Amino acid sequence: MDVVNVFDYERLAAAKLAPSAWDYYQSGADDEVTLGANRAAFARIWLRPRFMRDVGQIEMATTVLGTPVSMPILVAPTALHGLAHPDGECATAPAVGAEGTLMIVSDSASRCMEDIAAVATGPLWYQLYAADRETTEAHVRRATEAGYRAIVLTVDAPRWGRKERALRSDFDQPPQVIYGNYASTETKRAIMPLTWEVFDWLRTLTPVPFLLKGILTAEDAELAVAHGAAGIVVSNHGGRQLDSAIPSIVALPEIVAAVGDRCAVYMDGGIRRGTDVLKALALGAQAVLVGRPILWGLAAAGPAGVQSVLALLRDEFAQALALAGCATLADITPALLRMGF
Ligand SMILES: Cc1cc2nc3c(=O)[nH]c(=O)nc-3n(C[C@H](O)[C@H](O)[C@H](O)COP(=O)(O)O)c2cc1C
Predict the structure, then answer these.
(1) What is the architecture, at CATH level 2, of domain 6-48+58-172+179-326?
(2) Do the strands 231-234 and 210-215 form a parallel or antiparallel pair, or are they unpaired?
């Protein structure tokens, strides 16, 4: 068997992608301490399985901000799918829809948001960066018009992280791979200072709900709720921004405790196994997002690879639920966990 887990797609993608594209996808900032810690932290969380329960039928369908999804596993926004497949995000989106889940389309996608929406078969959210004021406003309006159901504003990028692996391999966009939502690379490079006032202004532009992605503290989570965020994505950008930032799974509990049921909480960073999903949900996330594995699937096997990655995670999550004694998501409680050594 060639493929038994998502790491097999990592190996296949490494063999297939141009080295500089591979480095761009894989790299984290600086020493990649956070990148490694995102994964390592999961290994310090132990499961306390319960037995003698009927787990013959596993039910994992749920809703995210009112939108039904087949499982609490969503697709994180990642830039430039065109490096992995000639159709870029237009190859990814229908594959995600076919698995019944939701894709967050990156503002830095290689295809424009309207083209992606036109071929999508499932629900979409739009991830927004703070570019210059006019471009950012235009992106909010276009995403609303194109039917994106929420806007995910990424807050952790007042500057771009230094991805040294990508710098060393001289990552250079091939000319056919462009930023599909931007008129030019110059427009793409502008970053307006993102403050709570800017967020208040952005919210006036659309009736569509906003989530804030990249929140890592209870203090910012409290402010997010106060400023009307419908959801938070606890994330350190897959270790690509502030190196030594706290692993997302370690930050999750204080944010869940701070916001309670006042807004939805999701997380990403290092989700590679069904047991990772179970741990994140037991710590209070309502769903998780998956970043790099989707790119690995796309690079290795196109849309079928994306579907296969999602199917592997779904099957592993069902396995984890059953073996831990949970038949439904409601059965997942903090009592499943023992933190430590
Ligand atoms: C190649 C790559 C590109 C990314 N591009 C974006 C982006 O455009 N916008 C964004 O908010 N996050 C971006 N991220 C971060 C992801 O949304 C997500 O937070 C992270 O990948 C999750 O970690 P994981 O890759 O370990 O699953 C990117 C991540 C990677 C690996």
Answers:
(1) Alpha-Beta Barrel (3.20)
(2) parallel
Distance 61 CA to ligand 1 centre (A): 24
Active site residues: 237
- Quick check: 133 and 158 in contact, CB under 8 A? no
Sign of CA pseudo-dihedral 159, 210, 116, 81: positive
Give tens-digit pLDDT for 116-164: 999 999 999 999 999 999 999 999 999 999 999 999 999 999 999 999 9
- Quick one: pLDDT at residue 341? 64
Ligand 1 pocket check for 27: Cβ under 6 Å: no
pTM: 0.98
Give the three-state DSSP class for 121.
coil
Extents of the domains making up the chain: 6-48+58-172+179-326
The owner of tokens 């030594």 is 244
299 Cβ closer than 6 Å to some ligand 1 atom: no
* 3-state percent breakdown (helix, strand, coil) of the chain, nearest 5: 45, 15, 40
pLDDT, tens digit, 9 for 90 and up, residues 232-271: 999 999 999 999 999 999 999 999 999 999 999 999 999 9
Give the Å distance between the CA of 224 and the centre of ligand 1: 21
